[in-house]
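Two proteins were folded this term; both appear here.
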Amino acid sequence: MLVSGEVAREKIAPDVSLFFGFEELDFCLRVSRKGYSILVDCKLFLEARAFHNRKNYKVPFYTKERKFK
């Protein structure tokens, strides 16, 4: 992840107590709340979808509720 020097000067940093990718989400939300834009190269997401054969995947309008015993 590339981060603007302005973000670092404002001392916006990830929360080290978070784990498994949530620190990145938290960091991006903090940056966004301070008014900075988050830019993502969508080509990377498209390549990942192609790799996992999910280019035609459609999110269902609803999800069926599952009951666990």
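Next, the second protein.
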Amino acid sequence: MAGGFGDQANGPSYAATQIGYQYDSKIERLAIKKVSSGGTVPGPFHWAGIEDQYFAAVFIPQDPQSAALVTLRNTIEIPHDASDPNNKQIDKVEVLGAAVGT
């Protein structure tokens, strides 16, 4: 799964995306600057995934003890103003992704 929920035509909407995970009562959140592409976070996890200011997409592993999280981070280009077809300015934004498995 990849972040960028909501208005994907707006660059700042990508900036609030972060990786989140929980085990027991401890919830950890990794800001976009602390995420490396291909980085592995060993479990256990009760849930793990991507979240932003309003939404989350999480995996709930069947076996929390053997779960692991792989983080992804990539740069994409989007139009600066998608509502103006004459505007050729391009913004580069960071996109996060996550995969959870055993």
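The chain has one helix and seven strands. Residues 12 and 93 are 8 Å apart (CA to CA). These notes refer to the second protein only.
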